[in-house]
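Sorry to interrupt, but I need a hand with the structure work. Could you add the entry underneath, on a fresh line?
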Amino acid sequence: RDKAQWSTVVKRYLALCCCLLGLLLNPALNPAYANTEKTNTDTSIEVSVVSSPEIQSLLTELTKKSLNKAVPVLQQLEQSGGEAMLPLFRTMLGGNLYFIKANRQVISVTKAESGKAFANVFTGEALPEFTKKQIKKIRVNNRLRGYLRDAIARIQLSSSDPAAREKAVRNLLSDLDQPTIEAIQTVRVNESNTAVQEMMDLALAMHKLTNAALAVDQLDAVEALSGSLESEVRNLLARVSESENYEPAVNKAATSALVKIQDKVEFYAFIDQLFFGLSLGSVLLLAAIGLAITFGVMGVINMAHGEMIMLGAYTTYVVQLMLPNHIEYSLWLAIPLAFIVSGLMGVLIERGVIRFLHGRPLETLLATFGISLILQQLVRTIFSPLNRQVASPEWMSGSIEINPVLSLTLNRLYILAFALLVFFLLQLILKKTSLGLNVRAVSQNRNMARAMGVRSDWVDAMTFGLGSGIAGIAGVALSQLTNVGPNLGQAYIIDSFMVVVFGGVGNLLGTLVAAFSLGIANKFLEPVTGAVLASILVLVFNILFIQKRPKGLFPQKGRAAE
């Protein structure tokens, strides 16, 4: 019956994975596909604008002007072309704008793996290669770069995307001249998005503070700026608080606003450190949770546990080598494969070595340490000693910006959620399945469990395979944070044992609490002591704590304690 239930669960899991993969690969559900019609329409409008005689004449004139005379031409292009000029301005700002000497056509020239890539500036269409004598670069200086940044921001003020409009206003905060303020005031009247409205009001308040003649107006502007975390606002308030051109009341108000902002900055800095501590804790949890099972159930000091993590990371690397065009979905395939690869290796180690060394922990330690060296050398032979980089899917790249001083990186956020998911799934397996019942029985009283008909050898193999498989999953997560190399597991084996012992041997809840506690403590110590000394202090604390409480935070009770 149990085998039938497990077979049904596996079939349903595979069916669900196939359904999800089919949905993800369905082009009709792809956002890019959904926006194809709109994108094509916008592109056709931009092409028609660019192909107008007036724009073509200005583009030709741009290729003839010197650095000092290029700004008036760019101003005319901005007024006439509007949003269609964004590709041109961005290419020029990046220093990639060239023109063909024969016909004065502007093109984009960028670096590529095979050399240089030539493309149409506005459509992105690839062009044939040109020699150095056939093209010439349109040079830019700091004055032109400043104008281009402001022009891009001004054009984006009328964008249909609220995020683009908000970003455009934020980019303009450092250079609020009168034409820019007039442009913001014009679009502010019809702006409907609250976040964009607040950013525009912030820009207007900054301009008001520096240009208002009356102290009453300046105090109103300071009040409007007092809650902002933008760096430009803080710099402006710092200048106002120290300037003699303002009345003492304005200086005092600016100083008070700076203190209020600094309190917010310190609070969000605390949140940022807490997030990085939780992120480190999630990595430690994934690395140690498998060890907690094998160490708690079998009493085996498995020094090859780090190599199970390494095998999971290399499995992710191999999956991406096999699916170079499907990086977005490779992780979904790598997770079960890493579990299987590391799990099977764990079962092989248990059946081939560890089962002959029960009751001899020192010899088990030495044997697994030798196995770890063998696995490291095997990986060096197959993949070379060099580190390998695993690409992150686009949905794990970037960050969520909460405010100007706090942003949460997506890869660490996903790994945190993934670690908690693995923890609760493992708890479910140990509490609700026959394997979990047998594991708990063997861990509490091996001889009694064997007398009741439990196949302890089978339980040991499955337990070691389960713990090793979870270590392989940890390797998948670590491949998104660091490079994959033969020594990857060695960096986490000591920390894993420290987490297991600190939390209480064989107690998964203790492992969870210990992992996050040590991760947070490490990250809060790092700014004060440095990374190396922080790790040493955490280790010393752990040693002293074990001297006081040898059984950890959550010791086993009852028969399990024996």
In short: Residues 19 and 416 are 25 Å apart (CA to CA). The radius of gyration is 31 Å.
